[in-house]
Amino acid sequence: MTEHRSPDTKFRTSLLEENEGPATNPTDNRTMGEIIAARFSRRGFLKGSLAVSAIAATVSPLALVAADDARAADGSVFKFDELEAGIDDKHHVAPGYDADVLLRWGDPLFADSPEFDPTKQSAAAQARQFGYNNDYVGYIPIDGSAEHGLLVVNHEYTNSHLMFPGIVKVVDKDGKKALETAPLSKDQVDVEMAAHGGTIIEIRKVSGKWQVVRDGKLNRRITATTEMQLSGPVAGHDRVKTNADPAGTKVFGTINNCAGGVTPWGTYVMSEENIHGYFSGELPEGHKEAANYKRLGIPEGAYEWAAHYDRFDLAKEPNEPNRFGWIVEVDVDDPTSAPKKRTAMGRFKHEGAESIVAKDGRVAFYLGDDERFDYVYKFVTTGTFNPNDLAANRDLLDAGTLHVAKFDDDGTVDWLPIVFGQGPLTAENGFAGQADVLIETRRAADLLGATKMDRPEDIQPNAVNGKVYVMLTNNTKRKAEQVNAANPRADNAFGHIIEIAEDGGDFAGTKGKWEVLLKCGDPSVAEVGATFSTATTANGWFGMPDNCAVDSAGRLWVATDGQGPKATGRTDGLWAVDTEGAARATSKLFFRVPIGAEMCGPLFAPDDQTAFVAVQHPGDGGEDWAPFGRPSYYEDLSTRWPDFKPDMPVRPAVVAITKQGGGKIAV
Question: Nearest Cα to 26, choosing from 414, 440, 473?
């Protein structure tokens, strides 16, 4: 389909991460903003970060200077000279560090892989090369080494206008310049499908620098056509059967893999997020999946795959969307193994799946549903982790209890089990069994009265201090009548971070306590209501927290998504955030990405001597990226990062950050 757009309009796939569909949560469940507001109004003046949060809407945070705040800079656990915030076409890292590009879109991954040629792309070549839009980054040691291991990387989605020449043309339309986009050919769609999925690649540190091992025996590409298995309660159910898979157990490919995780037993998990954009067409009239798909915003049709493949056309394969939106587990030790979609962990727009072993040996996975007014989840395995027999853990994810969070006014959180037959999850409400509950996880959570959140993204448990950190990116759809002066904010453009302490330090438990660690945004603007400590500099504050990492010392690092000239006056990047003591809520900028990019990852090597970060969709965007002030596409790019060669397009890439001369980062 050809579309005409003005030059200041974003391309459709550029919006895929932001475009979570219409406001699909139809419930009147309370929002996190209403709960925080009620909590503050009941408790009055509170201590610590909650006190700052309660009054920040009416008093400038810069005026909230306590004795501890004055000592915050000295009390920080992060020791590095802060980077200056800004906007340009390059990446930047704090002084004293190197930031080396390790893997770029199109880089060969195998000894026989072809070299990247942007003018001669093919699906066969792309399937042997590093994929597009790297997001989650994980590290699995080989023989316990912090300097030799497997790097696992998700490839979330593709930007065809940045990838292919000839897609975008400037034309004259009614006397004005406009952009015309040509439909993709089947060959180009095949390249897109091969650029999705994930990469497993052996890497080694040599003389202080990381290198790709192209003949690594465990190297693998996973794509949107890789054969996979459905496992767990939904496998074989009628609602996942298709013409190509009448048994309902075999799926081809994985799509829109955002964040993810590495399990305690050394497998790689990929999270399927914004699946709605890949489906087009209309369901047959009166089809039973209509309400289910509406709750997920399906179909959105950002991609043109349905023009060439029937399985993405709802009119031809109405059950196909039920086969996506899952957590995918990959056995990295066997490159020939079929990845498994673990349906016990629920179906929604998964942001990540970070895990931790609980006191009793069960494993808890924290899961965000990345949409405005959707939910925070936790999956707890039925079985226990056996560190002495890794093979015994391989199917732990097929049995367990999925929970959804309800945040209460008194600062407690209840993890509500999503189990057929319990509470409203019954036949009277349209569920015939646990498979139905899991296929329609969002509706089940609606009925349980879960708390509607502001785009829950990455959620990271911290084994050092026993806390859990929830990134809430933003919610500009929040209305003024949903909050009061106590916060959080209406039109929440900058997001916030919540800290959870599970009762008794039991990550498998069903109750805990919550605090607001940070409300994000510019603390010099009183009406923004940000709550960074007064030791945070003009470079140190940020908005739109997205991904995060906890290093081996238990320190929190936050990556952002959505900053720019109009939003914050800076590009996205990686910030170090203190969570303890006098320096709590102090933030420092460590790394920033080039124009148009999002900061993904991050990941710290086990010895904390390397930070791997993923620079996603560099060069994307249009009018929001003043002073560049125009859309960016293959023939007219706002940056040619990271190669800066006239014959090379912009290329998403993974960057390895190390301290000059060696040593741990920020120590």
Answer: 440
Cβ atoms 654, 613 nearer than 8 A: yes
Measured from the Cβ of residue 283, the count of other Cβ atoms closer than 10 Å reads: 17
Distance (Å, whole) CA 574 – CA 617: 16
Return d(Cα 45, Cα 39) in angstroms, integer.
11
The number of residues in the chain equals 667
577: nearest Cα among 505, 473, 464, 666: 666
Structure-token pair, residue 471: 């990134």
428 vs 398, 420, 433, 560, CA distance in Å?
26, 11, 11, 43
pTM of the predicted protein model: 0.92
Rg of the chain (C-alpha set): 23
Q: What is the pLDDT of residues 618-632, one digit of tens each?
A: 999 765 554 555 689
Q: Is 369 helix (H, G, I), strand (E, B) or coil?
A: strand
Q: Which two tokens stand for residue 184?
A: 């993709």
Please check whether residue 273 is in contact with residue 352, taking contact to mean a CB–CB distance below 8 angstroms.
no
Contact 397, 344 (CB under 8 A): yes
Structure-token pair, residue 250 = 């075999």
Distance CA 191, CA 304 (A): 12
Question: Which residues pair with residue 201 across a beta bridge?
Answer: 151
Distances, alpha carbon 463 to alpha carbons 34, 262, 392, 460, 468, in Å: 30, 15, 23, 10, 9
Contact by Cβ (8 Å): 655, 613: yes
What tens digit of pLDDT does each residue of 387-409 get? 999 999 999 999 999 999 999 88
The answer to whether the beta carbons of residues 468 and 461 sit under 8 Å apart is yes
Cα–Cα dist 556/179, whole Å: 42
Whose tokens are 């007064």? That residue is 534
Q: Are the C-beta atoms of residues 132 and 652 closer than 8 Å to each other?
A: yes
Please say whether the beta carbons of 650 and 159 come within 8 A: no
Q: 417-429 burial string, b = 16+ CB within 10 Å, else e?
A: ebebeeeebeeee
Spatial contact of 341 and 334, defined as CB atoms under 8 Å apart:
no
**Encoded tokens for 476:** 């500009």
Tokens encoding 542? 């940020």
Are β-strands 3-5 and 176-181 bridged in parallel, bridged antiparallel, or unpaired?
Answer: antiparallel
Number of H helices, E strands in the chain: 10, 34
Q: What are phi and psi of 120, to 5 degrees?
A: -135, 50
Kindly report the backbone phi and psi dihedral angles of residue 132, in degrees, each rounded to the nearest multiple of 5, phi listed first: -95, 160
Q: What is the DSSP letter of 174?
A: T
DSSP string, 92-112: EE-TTEEEEEEEETT-B-STT
34 pLDDT band (50/70/90 cuts)? low
**Under 8 Å between Cβ of 576 and 613:** no
